[in-house]
Amino acid sequence: MILTASHSLGAAYESTAAASAMASSVTASATSAASEPARSVRSAIYAAAPADAPAGGIAGWAADLMDSLGAIGAGVAIALENLFPPLPSEVILPLAGFAASQGKFSLLAALLWTTVGSVVGALALYWVGGLLGRDRTVAIAARLPLVKTADIEKTEAWFERHGTKAVFFGRMIPIFRSMISIPAGIERMPLPLFLGLTTVGSLLWNSVFVLLGYVLGSRWHEVTDAVGLYSKGVLGVVALAVVAFVVVRIRKGRGAHRARS
């Protein structure tokens, strides 16, 4: 009986020790996970990307900015996107939303700093337009082939009628979202009005794509693919308009030359 009791006590002790060891292991794992830094944005996008997705590029560059500066990095990327339109906002904004979903920074910070970046970039181009001024713009246009002073005057008249709508809705059109700030500066649109229209228009555009990236998570690149088609469509329309302008202007020039002859 004594042996049996001793055996039972020993088994109970071993069970208690095993349970204690397991609890210590779980606690240690939890502590280690809590102390482990969050995975970088770059490693997260590569882990979530399809196997054939290229490494680096705009997404990798933007991810490095967000890893270094957090949400401010997303704002810097968007400010540069305004100054250099070939940088696509349809990559940067959903990526910022994805980074927020991974806990790199908050969703509110992503919306705030990307909008600040949009306004800063637009304001820089507004100042470029202001420094350029109407006289320099007309002088430059006079040196361009196929462009006439009358074209500048027509553009000015159009901007006087539709400038507020152009600045607001232009923030939602690729290429134009950057370029529209220059004529606003040339025409000396009141700065408070320009800032208000740019801020609201940018907030709407940025919010849509940041939120989509946040909701889609690892599938954030689907937003880039879809909006990329929209951007290409806009560029196609612009290219056709330029070609049409050149063809019409050349024909008018030839017609005027024949009439003089």
Comma- or semicolon-separated keywords:
261 residues, elongated, mainly alpha
Q: Can you tell me about this structure?
A:
The structure is a single chain. This protein is mainly α and 261 residues long. Helices cover 83% and strands 0% of the residues. The protein contains 11 helices and no strands. The chain has helices spanning 2-35, 41-48, 57-69, 71-83, 89-101, 107-143, 149-170, 176-179, 181-186, 191-216, 221-260. Helix 5 packs across helix 10 (191-216) and helix 6 (107-143) crosses helix 10. The longest helix has 40 residues, at 221-260. The radius of gyration is 29 Å and the shape is elongated. It starts with a helix and ends with a helix. The model is unreliable at 1-9, 22-37 and 51-55 (pLDDT under 50).
Number of E strands:
0
Strand content: under 5%
Kindly provide the radius of gyration, computed on alpha-carbon positions and rounded to a whole number of angstroms: 29 Å
Determine the fraction of residues in helical runs and give it as a percent range. over 70%
Sequence stretches where pLDDT stays below 50 over 5 or more residues: 1-9, 22-37, 51-55
| Mean of all residue-level pLDDT scores | 74
Separation, N- and C-terminal Cα atoms: 131 Å
Could you state the order of secondary-structure elements as H and E? HHHHHHHHHHH
Question: How many DSSP H or I helices?
Answer: 11
Coarse morphology = elongated
Which structural class is indicated by helix and strand composition? Answer: mainly alpha
Could you describe the largest sheet, including whether it forms a barrel? none
